[in-house]
């Protein structure tokens, strides 16, 4: 089965784009869609449901020669779009949080978003600014909420910018190049596109599952969270 068969919506011009489907998004908008989706996922609270991990991996896979069927992307364009989208989105989210504070989260009633906010705050308290900002890139929902939360908690702008660039490049370039490497090394890899994307999604959710298990096993602490330690 080709990639076009695996993603039937990419060949149906008259079908609406499915924003939760990486194949549909890439077929409709190419590298530009990568930038827009990552900007929304990392910079706007409404983008917490978008498929950042699977989008990056699938985009890298569709850059490999001989894959993708009717959809073929150019690797340098995808890498550039991914980096620009996520770095610009993260900075935007930070400044939104700096201006709007916690009131932004209070207005949104999405349960997953509030769970992500609690997890993001725990990341900052446990790991410190730098490590938390980098690790959050690899945890869905948390990577959406941590950026405005960092602004609301007055994480120093220079510290945030430095670590969000490091984490953003590691996440975007790493996942995209992983997809590209697999596509160039495994013959007819597009036959297994759906299972691989599903695996990427499961792997991306693993850190969140581990953190949830740890939090449930951890004894309840007294009210009030410790102030995140400043970076050295």
Order of helices and strands: HHHHHHHHHH
Class per helix and strand makeup: mainly alpha
Characterize the overall form: globular
Which consecutive residue ranges, at least 5 long each, have pLDDT under 50? 1-15
Work out the helix count.
10
Distance between the termini: 53 Å
User: What is the CA-based Rg, rounded?
Assistant: 18 Å
Helix share of residues?
Answer: 55-70%
Beta strand %? under 5%
Largest sheet: none
Average pLDDT for all residues: 76
Give the strand tally. 0
What order do the helices and strands come in, and which of them pair?
Elements: H1 3-6, H2 22-43, H3 52-61, H4 75-100, H5 103-107, H6 111-127, H7 129-136, H8 142-152, H9 157-185, H10 193-217
Helix pairs in contact: 2-3, 2-4, 3-9, 3-10, 4-8, 4-9, 6-7, 6-8, 7-8, 7-9
């Amino acid at each position: 089965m080709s990639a076009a068969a695996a993603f039937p919506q990419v060949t149906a011009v008259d079908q609406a784009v499915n924003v939760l489907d990486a194949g549909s998004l890439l077929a409709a908008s190419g590298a530009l869609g990568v930038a827009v989706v990552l900007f929304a996922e990392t910079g706007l609270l409404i983008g917490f449901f978008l498929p950042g991990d699977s989008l990056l991996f699938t985009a890298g896979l569709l850059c490999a020669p001989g894959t993708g069927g009717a959809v073929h992307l150019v690797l340098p364009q995808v890498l550039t779009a991914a980096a620009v989208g996520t770095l610009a989105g993260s900075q935007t989210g930070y400044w939104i949080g700096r201006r709007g504070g916690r009131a932004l989260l209070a207005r949104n009633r999405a349960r997953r978003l509030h769970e992500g906010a609690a997890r993001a705050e725990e990341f900052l308290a446990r790991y410190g600014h730098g490590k938390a900002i980098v690790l959050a890139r690899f945890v869905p929902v948390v990577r959406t909420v941590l950026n405005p939360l960092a602004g609301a908690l007055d994480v120093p702008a220079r510290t945030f910018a430095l670590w969000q660039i490091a984490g953003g490049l590691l996440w975007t370039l790493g996942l995209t190049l992983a997809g590209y490497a697999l596509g160039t090394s495994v013959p007819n890899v597009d036959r297994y596109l759906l299972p691989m994307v599903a695996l990427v999604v499961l792997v991306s959710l693993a850190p969140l599952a581990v953190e949830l298990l740890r939090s449930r096993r951890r004894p309840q602490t007294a009210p009030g969270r410790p102030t995140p330690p400043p970076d050295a």
